[in-house]
Design brief:
It is built from 14 helices and no strands. It has one domain.
Amino acid sequence: MTPPAFGLFALTYYLLAGLGVNLGYHRVLSHRSLKLPKWLERTLVTIGLPAGTPVQWVANHRYHHVHADTDLDPHSPVLRGFWYAHVGWYLRSSNVPLCVLYALGGPGRMLVDAWMRPRAKQSRGEPARGELARSESANDVASDPWYAFLSRPGPYAIAMHLHAAIPVAIAFWGWGARGVVWLWLTQSLLYNLGDAVDSVSHMYGSRLPSQRDASRNNTLMGILTLGDGWHANHHRFPGCARHGLLPGQFDWTWQVIRALHALGLATDIHVLTSTEATEECR
């Protein structure tokens, strides 16, 4: 049984990582569905760096939306199977044992990504291997000096080693070898939840009427991924800052956005009301 103190540490890590990706990378950088002060936006993206380099992540994600579940989609489970969509597309491999090993890598996965992510050609919309991903669809992100710097191989490698080393050091200092094992399990869970948005959320759950792609609304994913699991809603309304649009769909990240708006930190928020969403989804 893990001690309560580690549980609090793991929960804090989970929430910060979730906000770094869901709010920073996804809703702010990729879809510009709201604005945050630059210091807060950059802080969130820096926290979320294990998701990938900012330029590459945004380029891939926008490319995915344009070509969802077609031959050009970088990670469609409908066309290439669960494991390729889950993690294989990072590795450019459909080898299941390799994908499982990578999926369970925890902090070790960060060390692999430190070398691989800035160099991997992960979609047909990116330049050749070895170049900084500057897809035209992500030029706005590449024009930001901080994001361009973090997306370079050297700085990204350093950042990823720090992302791996600091939590491991905290876990070992606080709880010894057991703490490192618990952290490994925590990070593996978080990675796989993020990956499951590309795999599980295009295979299991409910679709919206007249939907063209295979994205799904999955209740368990909606809860565990802090709102990003309401994936069919997101594909129907990609520019909307609120993903849990229909009755009973709780979106934790949207609640954070509301709090930031109340504090004057979130502006220019693009959102549909539940009534508007229900009418649009008929």
